[in-house]
Design brief:
about 450 residues; 15 strands; 6-stranded mixed sheet; single chain; alpha/beta; 13 helices; about 35% helix
Length: about 450
């Protein structure tokens, strides 16, 4: 098991900046506003030849019992309990505060090795603040600048003393490329997206069986895209909780813009995207925009209608109505699976997880070239392409170039003249013939090379 370190300290001392520095990516949101981080976030970190797991936490702060601030601190306490060691971070420029002293006692009571990290130590003011840190009684402060990468050597030396000696791996072992069996069993990357307060975090907490992610009746609780590992009936999933996506015109604060950008990155990284809607306000304009974004990114899609326990009519007719609405409003992903769920009550969870696996399988589907061209001949005979400017369009053959999503190349004459309506006809026919409901389909047009084009015409 990897050595685990939790970064703790009061808000706005640079914990997330240090986290990003150690993982080598800008995974955690960073802003001058205190309290940006709310959920705990884990990442695989590296410092020199040291490899370990790092946990970014919410700033230690006091709050009334049951409040969002208090539950943020509970998340931090959970991270401390999981960790093998702690980085206690202070702001050297600001100097020691009463909160720093109170939370230093909190860190001591954890009975874990603690490294005192004086961040923002660059410059004269930083050095003076770092000297004050001796008063905390947590040993010598390690002066760093997480933003500029200064002091990482001193942090490495202190951390190496804490970490166990690495276990030498058998050099004869060679992992090599993934086999088909390994690829079929590796975790499916799933992003759960939707408008604010659709119940995304509540759903993931139910899947985990614990309050891993912060939830609140107020919209916008989730800011970072948090990844969690889930095992469902022996299948591994890596699920990303994301910030709610509002209309662009309503996004004004810089922090929300960062949260939205983080959510969009999660969509691009995912293989399957669950678009979650509120059952009482479903298929609103923003829901349709988000679904269209997912389709344009080429991800497998599952629609989840949450808070189904609040609906008066829950019969099969209601579900059929949802499917009809989805096909009418989202024709580009006709047949998309739609599942009614309740993240709070746990209703429909098994159906949702099965729908994710089915969508993933379709997204990876490959069609044989012979079957594809048999369908193609029949489709063209049933509905030939229209003549453009009095000239007939010639469609030669089609082949699948890749999966994830299923992508095809259609060789033809005058590719620029084939109307979009005819491509939609081919896409829908292809979807129906090879049972590809709901998954994005890509058809690229390519003009067949004329082998005689380079020859000059004979003089008349």
């Amino acid at each position: 098991m990897s050595f685990m370190i939790a970064i703790i300290g009061r808000p706005n001392v640079g914990k997330s900046t240090l986290f990003n520095r150690l993982v080598g990516q800008k995974l955690a949101l960073v802003d001058d506003l205190p309290g940006v981080t709310r959920d705990r976030r884990e990442g695989e970190a590296r410092l020199g030849d040291l490899e370990f797991t790092i946990i970014d936490t919410a700033g230690l702060d006091e709050g009334a019992k049951g409040s969002l601030t208090a539950r943020m601190q509970e998340q931090t306490e959970t991270a401390i309990a999981l960790a093998d060691a702690l980085f206690f971070v202070i702001d050297a420029r600001a100097g020691l505060t009463p909160n720093d002293r109170a939370f230093a006692d909190f860190a001591r009571r954890a009975n874990k090795p603690v490294l005192l990290v004086a961040n923002k130590s660059e410059g004269k003011h930083g050095e003076i603040g770092a000297m004050e840190a001796y008063a905390l009684g947590l040993g010598d402060p390690i002066q760093i600048s997480a933003e500029h990468g200064e002091g990482m050597g001193e942090l490495y030396d202190a951390l190496r003393e804490l970490m166990p000696e690495p276990v030498e791996e058998d050099e004869a072992e060679d992992d090599g490329p993934l086999t088909e069996e390994e690829a079929a069993t590796r975790p499916i990357r799933v992003a759960i997206v939707g408008r604010p307060n659709a119940g995304k975090s509540t759903m993931i907490n139910h899947l985990l069986g614990e309050e891993r992610l912060l939830t609140s009746p107020e919209a916008g609780t989730t800011r970072d895209s948090i990844a969690v590992e889930i095992n469902w009936k022996g299948r591994e999933f890596r699920v990303f909780d994301t910030a709610g996506l509002r209309r662009r015109s309503r996004i004004e604060e810089k922090l929300e813009k960062l949260s939205v950008a983080d959510a969009l990155r999660a969509v691009r990284f995912a293989e399957v995207v669950v678009m979650m809607m509120d059952a009482q306000n479903r298929f609103e304009e923003q829901d349709l925009r988000i679904a269209d974004l997912i389709e344009r990114e080429g991800r497998a899609v599952v629609l989840a209608v949450n808070k189904w326990d609040l609906m008066e009519s829950k019969g099969g007719g209601a579900i059929s109505g949802l499917s009809r609405d989805a096909d009418h409003l989202l024709p580009q992903i006709k047949g998309v699976p739609i599942v009614a769920v309740s993240g709070l009550m746990g209703e429909g969870i098994d159906r949702l997880m099965q729908a994710i696996q089915d969508a993933y399988a379709l997204w990876n589907r490959r069609v044989s070239t012979s079957a594809l061209n048999r369908w193609f001949e029949e489709a063209v005979q049933a509905n030939p392409p229209p003549a453009v400017s009095g000239r007939r369009l010639k469609l030669n053959y089609i082949t699948q170039t890749k999966a994830r999503p299923p992508s095809f190349v259609l060789f033809c004459s005058r590719a620029d003249a084939i109307p979009q309506s005819y491509l939609r006809y081919l896409t829908n026919s292809l979807r129906e013939a090879f049972e590809l409901p709901g998954t994005p389909i890509r058809i690229t047009l390519r003009e067949k090379v004329n082998p005689f084009a380079h020859k000059r015409k004979r003089p008349s």
